[in-house]
């Protein structure tokens, strides 16, 4: 297969972890006889510095002309002035809109050999296997915003059509898994959540009658994710709730650095990125955990390129490397030694090539 992959390193540790994922994708191409072309482009703060825009036209063209987009992270203290007219995060939000990716898939799965990396007790997190389906292009992040010296406004808005399409993604995913969806909202307070609840219930009941589903308020979901995480299968929720809950869920496996994501729409081109941020405090030190980005590359292989065997092989290599004791600083037990980004990547590739 020939494929073109846009690589947007972004800011902070973003270029480091995307470089690691590219090395793994190159190993995939060698082993399976594929030809991957990597096209680098700017986004976020780096793009602002170079062009004044967080998402330059050249980057948009590179992404639209690719089969999949691999992203590192955006943002950092250099561009964090809340009064700034142009901010790195605007580039990411606009890229999601341009690509039409409305469903963000975030898998959370614990590894038996790494239960000690979680701050929770091993018996609580053993066997966790969750996929969060987060609506990505609606809600409060995309609503009208205004601010004066004395008040500010962020409008949260959802349409039935936006809720329907992401619910179908969750329903199809549940059919492939354990057949259970928990839809998370705040319907006791918010009108958008009341619409969310009504539409989710209708779509799942009419189109996915085999799927069991339940509604859960977001504050209860936050509690139960820590109290009984193994009871969750597919979690469906809106944009802001999904953003927050998946950061919380990362502690089930021990680190933000381990979790990948795939942002999908109706087209084949998807956006793939780890769920962590740019971590400017460790940028350039060679210690960032590349695993989340490597697993995001595996999701790119699966969802945009249709290469299931290759994706599974990468995920297996990661699992075997972690089981063999590969630990970066964020997941190493206190007082123990750890590997840098490059050594961790080499270990994954070594297990992949066995």
Brief characterization of the structure:
With 354 residues, this protein is α/β, with parallel strands linked by helices.
Features:
12 strands; globular; Isopropylmalate Dehydrogenase; 2 domains; single chain; two-stranded antiparallel sheet; alpha/beta; ten-stranded mixed beta sheet; 12 helices; 354 residues
Query: Low-confidence spans: pLDDT under 50, at least 5 residues?
Result: none
Would you identify the CATH architecture of the largest domain?
3-Layer(aba) Sandwich
Our count of domains comes out at 2
The total of helices stands at: 12
User: Which fold name is given in CATH as the topology of the largest domain?
Assistant: Isopropylmalate Dehydrogenase
User: Judging from the principal axes of the Cα atoms, what is the shape?
Assistant: globular
Task: Provide the β-strand percentage band.
Answer: 15-25%
Can you offer a commentary on this structure?
A hairpin with a 4-residue loop joins strand 6 (about 145) and strand 7. The chain is of the alpha/beta class. Strands 2-1-3-12-11-4-5-10-8-9 form a ten-stranded mixed β-sheet, with helices on both faces. Strands 6-7 form a two-stranded antiparallel sheet. The longest helix has 19 residues, at about 15-30. Helix 1 (about 15-30) runs parallel beside helix 12 (about 340-350), helix 6 (about 160-175) crosses helix 7 (about 190-205) and helix 8 (about 220-225) packs parallel to helix 9. The chain has twelve helices and twelve strands. It folds into two domains: about 1-105 and about 260-354, Isopropylmalate Dehydrogenase (3-Layer(aba) Sandwich), CATH 3.40.718; about 120-255, Isopropylmalate Dehydrogenase, CATH 3.40.718. It has helices at about 15-30, 45-50, 55-65, 90-100, 120-125, 160-175, 190-205, 220-225, 240-255, 290-305, 310-325, 340-350, and strands at about 1-10, 35-40, 70-75, 105-110, 130-135, 145, 150-155, 180-185, 210-215, 235, 260-265, 270. The protein is globular.
């Amino acid at each position: 297969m020939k494929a073109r992959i846009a690589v947007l390193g972004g800011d902070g540790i973003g270029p480091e972890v995307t470089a690691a994922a590219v090395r793994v994708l190159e190993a995939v191409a060698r082993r399976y006889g594929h030809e991957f072309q990597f096209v680098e482009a700017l986004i976020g703060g780096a793009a602002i510095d170079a062009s004044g825009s967080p998402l330059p036209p050249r980057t948009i063209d590179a992404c639209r002309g690719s089969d999949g987009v691999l992203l590192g992270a955006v943002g950092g203290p250099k561009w964090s002035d809340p009064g700034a007219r142009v901010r790195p995060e605007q580039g990411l939000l606009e890229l999601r809109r341009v690509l039409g990716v409305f469903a963000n898939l975030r898998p959370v799965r614990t590894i038996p050999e790494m239960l000690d990396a979680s701050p929770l007790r091993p018996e609580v997190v053993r066997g966790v296997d969750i996929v969060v389906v987060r609506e990505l292009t609606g809600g409060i992040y995309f609503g009208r915003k205004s601010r004066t010296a004395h008040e500010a406004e962020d409008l949260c808005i959802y349409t039935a059509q936006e809720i329907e399409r992401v619910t179908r993604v969750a329903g199809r995913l549940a059919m492939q898994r354990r057949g259970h969806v928990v839809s998370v909202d705040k319907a006791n307070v918010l009108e958008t959540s009341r619409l969310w609840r009504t539409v989710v219930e209708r779509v799942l009941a009419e189109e996915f009658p085999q799927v069991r589903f339940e509604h859960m308020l977001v504050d209860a979901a936050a509690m139960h994710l820590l109290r009984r995480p193994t009871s969750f299968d597919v979690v469906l929720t809106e944009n802001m709730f999904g953003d927050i809950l998946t950061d919380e869920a990362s502690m089930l496996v021990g680190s933000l650095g381990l979790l990948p994501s795939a942002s999908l729409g109706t087209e084949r081109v998807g956006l793939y990125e780890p769920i962590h941020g740019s971590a400017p405090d460790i940028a350039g030190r060679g210690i960032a955990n590349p695993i989340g980005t490597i697993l995001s590359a595996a999701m790119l292989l699966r969802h945009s390129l249709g290469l299931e065997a290759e994706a599974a092989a990468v995920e297996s290599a990661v699992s075997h490397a972690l089981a063999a004791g590969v630990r970066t600083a964020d997941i190493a037990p206190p007082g123990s030694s750890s590997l840098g980004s490059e050594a961790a990547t080499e270990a994954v590739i070594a297990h992949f090539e066995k």
